[in-house]
Amino acid sequence: MIRLTNVSKVVTSGTEQLTILHSLDLHVPNGQFVSVVGPSGSGKSTLLGLIAGLDAPTAGNIKLDGHDITRMGEDSLAELRGKLIGFIFQSFHLIPSLTAYENILVPMEIMGLDRARVRAQTLLDEVGLHERGHHYPSQLSGGEQQRVAIARAFANDPQILLADEPTGNLDSKNGAHIFELLLKLNRERGTTLLLVTHDHGLADLADRKITLSDGRIVEDILAQSEVHAVN
What is the pLDDT of residues 145-192, one digit of tens each? Predict the structure, then answer.
């Protein structure tokens, strides 16, 4: 599903070249739940941005479902992203002038998805916000806003879900609820999930845990259940 080959990312900082990711190789099969941990500046968010096609690598190639996104033009990439990927940000990125329901509905209408209104309500129900759809983001708690963001990320029924510190701005109770929701959606829909998190307790519950340090993968561990499945 996701394959990175010799991917590196170098940026210019003043007069110096700063390497964010060093010649990285990674393969994530369909339906796997992978957590990505590491200190600030280790390249976690950069990695997710590259996989999402929001940024381009300096070298190497990235394939999603067999499509080499590093060779695509912006229009083709945007179309593929709309079909394959859902993205959840730490800061929610909801449109303040739209209700919770509208925040989910509008992207689907823009994409021209069938039965968008029915699907928007179904997604609200799935994240436990049946009675909150008419509320604006400012009227919702942080946990509720993040649940709207999750519902919106699933609007295109993505094969790949990328979540960048989705529990980082939440208290422990709401953070645990959001994590359970992501896990439930991953298990029930078979969605490939990459979760960047600073919470090692949550990360340890994934099928696979990858640790980044200074732009390199320094640890890649399969859960025991996944080891048995491979063997």
Answer: 988 998 898 888 889 999 998 888 778 887 888 888 888 878 888 999
Give which of 56, 2, 58, 48 is closest to 28, Cα–Cα.
Answer: 2
User: In whole angstroms, how large is the CA radius of gyration of the chain?
Assistant: 18
Instruction: Report d(CA 89, CA 75) in Å as an integer.
Output: 23
Place of tokens 């989910």: 104
User: What are 11-68's pLDDT values in tens digits?
Assistant: 998 889 999 999 999 999 999 999 999 999 999 999 999 999 999 999 999 999 999 9
DSSP-derived letter for residue 69 is: G
Class of domain 29-54+85-230: alpha beta
3 neighbors 62 (Cβ within 8 angstroms)? yes
Contact by Cβ (8 Å): 143, 170 = yes
* Bridging pattern class, strands 67-68 and 59-64: antiparallel
Domain boundaries, the chain: 29-54+85-230
Provide the whole-model pTM: 0.87
